[in-house]
Amino acid sequence: MRVAGHLQEYRSHGSLGFAVVRDRAGLFQVTLKKGETPEEVFATLATVPRESVVSFEGRVAENPRAKVGSEVLAQQAVVLSPAETPLPLGVVDKVGVDLDTRFNHRFLDLRKRENHDLFQFRGILEESLRSSFRDLGFLEVDTPKILRQGAEGGATLFSVDYFGGKAYLAQSPQLYKQMLMATDMERVFEIAPAFRAEPSDTLRHLTEFTSVDAEMAYIDGPEDLWRTIEALLSQTLERSRAALEKAANPLAARIASPRRPFPRIPFQEARKMLGKPPGDDDLGSEEEKALGELMGREQGSEMYFITEYPSQLKLSTFYAMRQDAHPEKTNYFDLDFGGLEIISGGQREHRLEKLKQQIRNAGLDPENFAGYLEPFRFGMPPHGGFALGLDRLTAKLAGLANVREARLFPRDRFRLDP
Ligand code: AMO
Question: In this structure, what are the phi and psi dihedrals at residue 166, rounded to the nearest 5 degrees?
């Protein structure tokens, strides 16, 4: 048989040689035996640098002492691609390497077992989200990422040259998922990149992230969204855990079913819990963390909604529905997971005149949103939706402090390579 992979290590002991080779399944051992393995194979292995790609021809032998139970007795070895020395980053070294070095040589970093486990987990999570959305009656859609108008405020828009004119990278599929509510599709979701010219250098902000968006029509209020989110996350986590267990992925142990229902804490109540007076300024990340600790300690809840965001805070979110009876409050909410915001969403304003007024209140011109507004003129059902940051959810579940680690090739203010 023929086996190939990265040569992680080679040792020789008298008449024996042992090569530890790595492929996607993990490690396997290739044994060289004087008398049985040709001399030139010994010679090749003695000089080939670690991490080279080597292919072996040989026969399989059971060996209870080999790490993997069986081994390949080599007859032939071919170096398919030698690795230069020294390696810019060790693959097996346990010494801590800083994150920048890891990202600079990410392909080597990604050879590490724990990263294979992590990205297998991320893939499973994404697949489980898709299946769970489908079970809940949502249709998967793709909306454009090159836009004439932004949706989340001008400050974080990336502009691109569009044949001599100006266009923007989508910060969110917001306006499109809402337009689809006027089409009888009723429930849509999308998993796609979102771009934010996010200047803040934090552990939870990227300039390109994966946004898991959903929108649903004929809701009576935000409660319908909360129930959908509870079902979506519970199903997704159960599916993920089952798939991880099947794959013997150690991250399975980190996935617990969240306690339902998730507590709903009105924004002003959250402020009170943090000892802050009533007010319209947002919670900072430290306050979110403190709330997460409180919720975990006092209510045993890792996941909870912060509801009724103040209208003042959502001024630029012109599409957010203000409560008719309490115009100072919106039907908008966040879902925090252990002190980290992972979802944001709410009920949208579907009444044309109110919506136009809110666009003006945000300092924008409804004329510029003619395309977005048109569906509201011809029968737009009440609707709402939300977006979940896949990178944040992955990081949080896997216990990573920095959201960058949850992406293969992260983008932030300072990083465009590799
Ligand atoms: P929002 O801007 O709150 O809402 O984003 C939704 C979720 O996306 C994630 N997220 C980010 N993750 C990494 N880096 C970033 N820079 C970043 N920005 C956001 C977070 C956040 O909770 N259109 C609305 C959603 C809606 O109302 O449906 C929106 O985009 O997890």
Answer: -105, 135
Q: Any residues with Cβ below 6 Å from ligand 1, and which? A: 152, 172, 174, 196, 198, 205-206, 209, 211, 341-346, 385-387, 389, 391-392, 403
Can you give the CATH number for the domain in which 14 is found?
Answer: 2.40.50.140
Q: How far apart are CA 58 and CA 70, in angstroms?
A: 13
Q: How far is the CA of 344 from the centre of ligand 1 (A)?
A: 6
Q: How many Cβ atoms from other residues are within 10 Å of residue 90's Cβ? A: 15
Between the CA of 238 and the centroid of ligand 1 the distance, in Å, is 24
Q: What is the pTM of this model?
A: 0.96
Position 331 scores a pLDDT of 98
Cα within 13 Å of Cα(108), Cβ side: 23
- Whether 330 shows a pLDDT value over 80: the answer reads yes
DSSP one-letter string for 71-112: EEEEEEEEEEEPPPSS-SS-SS--S---HHHHHHTHHHHTTS
Lookup result for tokens 């599916």: 239
User: Mind listing the pLDDT tens digit for each residue in 233-253?
Assistant: 999 999 999 999 999 999 999
The residue segments making up the domain with residue 318 are 113-406
184 and 282 co-located in one domain: yes
